[in-house]
Design goal:
There is one protein chain. This protein is of the alpha+beta class and 152 residues long. The chain has 4 helices and 9 strands. The chain starts with a helix and ends with a helix. 22% of the residues are buried.
């Protein structure tokens, strides 16, 4: 049986993927071990970005502040070659998870209060907005359009 820390990590990565998809990102999976967890295509710029996913911890000994520990296994912070963005998944017990995305500033820890998290970090809703995808032609429509233009 998997250890709870492994289950939590996999859960956070899956929730992060759901949030990205719900917000128009395209997700790519590496077949080899990489420093990043997700390679995704930005829906606005079309740029491919590397994303490291971390589970947000709530520190009750620090007034309930939220922290994302963004360190590699060797204890060093992720640099820009490792990840362009960090996604923190806050999965409070029994609650719908909240997903926050922010630029990798090469820090080992990112802090926010519960009240300011949505101001300091970009919150990605996990609810699917089909409207994001409605304006994009599907592959068959795109091919048909090219064929029709070539025939004209």
């Amino acid at each position: 049986m998997a250890h709870i820390s492994e289950v939590t990590g996999v859960y956070s990565e899956l929730v992060a993927q759901v949030a990205l998809l719900a917000n128009g990102w395209r997700i790519h999976e590496s077949k080899t071990a990489e420093a990043y967890d997700i390679l995704a295509t930005d829906p606005v710029s079309g740029e491919h970005v590397k994303i490291q996913v971390k589970t947000i911890r709530q520190r009750m000994d620090r007034g309930g502040d939220l922290v994302v520990y963004a360190k590699k296994g060797n204890g060093t912070a992720y640099d820009r070659a490792d990840a362009d963005y960090i996604i923190g998944v806050w999965a409070a017990e029994g609650e719908i998870p909240r997903v926050f995305m922010f630029e990798n500033r090469m820090l080992g820890e990112y802090w926010a209060s519960e009240a300011t998290a949505a101001e300091r970090w970009v919150e990605l809703p996990i609810a699917l907005d089909r409207g994001i995808y409605a304006s994009e032609p599907n592959d068959a429509e795109a091919v048909a359009e090219v064929v029709l233009e070539a025939a004209a």
